[in-house]
Amino acid sequence: MIAIESIQNIRTVVQLSRQNLFVDRYTALVGNTKKATLKHMHVHGVLHGVEMSLMFFVMPVVVFCAAKLVSNHQLDIDTLLMAAAYVSFLSRFLSAVNLTLPKLGQSYAVAHHFTRLMYRKPLISMNDTTENQQHPQFDPVEFNSVCFAYPTRPKIMVLNKLNLTLRTGQSIAIVGTSGCGKSTVLSLIERFYDVTDGQLQIGGKDIRDVNLRHFRSLIGYIGQEPVLFNMSIRDNIGYGCDLNSITMSDIIDAAIIANIHSFVQTLPQGYDTLVGLHGSQISGGERQRLAIARAIVCKPQLLLMDEPTSALDDENEQIIQDALQHAAENRTSITVAHRKYATFYTSE
Ligand SMILES: Nc1ncnc2c1ncn2[C@@H]1O[C@H](COP(=O)(O)OP(=O)(O)OP(=O)(O)O)[C@@H](O)[C@H]1O
């Protein structure tokens, strides 16, 4: 985990000159594993040594006794050969068991962990059939006295009796101090969590009775940090949708609205250009504009934006704000924003 994290965030690690810290942590962890493995190997080695020594010490005694019995005509040679073959098979079998047993224990532990993960049931399932597939109504989104605490911190109420109504065509901004629960409101609308108390209604129905897969398909989300994959620009824009249901002209339309089309046209491979791991081959502003295009390519009815310009410089911020304003046109939207942009994002 330490190795993966530090390699994924190598720029930050190098920028903070913390390479040695991570190497030390990694070495310490590997050191612990090494100690445990060495102990195990020592025990295993001693047991194997005893087993082999017994075989070699006992063998001459057995051969000597057998020879004596044969010379005294108390044992015939056929029986002796048969007994020797049995002993040889038995010792090989025991040695194989000795080698396999520790691995069997390890495999059991891994299999146990794996099956526990496989059969874990999410509290909120995407496959519920509580409502028919077509549930186009999400107007209004209504929070009625909603209280919410995260499952990992059940005693800390993040939202306390929140009331909020959002109707079709409205654009609202949620503004507040850091940690007051702005992003949590968006997570509840996407139903990543269920409310602890009160009611969240979508189109007059409790959100728990709404078909989740279909409802989420009506939502476009733009976050603070755009997440891109090492795929082409076309696929990065299109993967938010079923690729069979959108055309190249849908992708270009979304790119035009997101202010990224003219940049893509300057690239030799255009929409087939690979963006690199985590989008490392394009700039932060270009990444965010691709994320905007992806969020709107499926023509969502509701757009959720969580401080989408927070990681950008002033110039990029202006370009992204223009793109966001275009993206939010004729749509219902909620924006988590800094205080200074609150009026910019709201329609009333
Ligand atoms: N997955 C989680 N598990 C437990 N607590 C969480 C989780 N996510 C957020 N919190 C806590 O819930 C509170 C609200 O978090 P939230 O992200 O909604 O705040 P925010 O207003 O969006 O903050 P910011 O403006 O800094 O992004 C914070 O105190 C945060 O530590």
TrEMBL record:
UniProt keyword terms in alphabetical order: ATP-binding, Membrane, Nucleotide-binding, Transmembrane, Transmembrane helix, Transport
Database matches in InterPro entries: AAA+_ATPase, ABC1_TM_dom, ABC1_TM_sf, ABC_transporter-like_ATP-bd, ABC_transporter-like_CS, P-loop_NTPase, Type_1_exporter
Membrane topology designation: Multi-pass membrane protein
Domain ABC transmembrane type-1: 1-106
SUPFAM superfamilies in the cross-refs: ABC transporter transmembrane region, P-loop containing nucleoside triphosphate hydrolases
Keyword Ligase (UniProt): no
SMART domains in alphabetical order: AAA (SM00382)
Name listed for the protein in its UniProt record: Uncharacterized protein
Top-rank lineage group of the source organism: Eukaryota
Assigned GO CC terms: membrane
Species, as recorded: Rotaria sordida
Cellular compartments annotated: Membrane
Annotated signal peptide: none
Single GO MF annotation: ABC-type transporter activity
PROSITE patterns for this protein: ABC_TM1F, ABC_TRANSPORTER_1, ABC_TRANSPORTER_2
TM stretches of this protein: 46-67, 79-101
Limits of the ABC transporter domain: 141-346
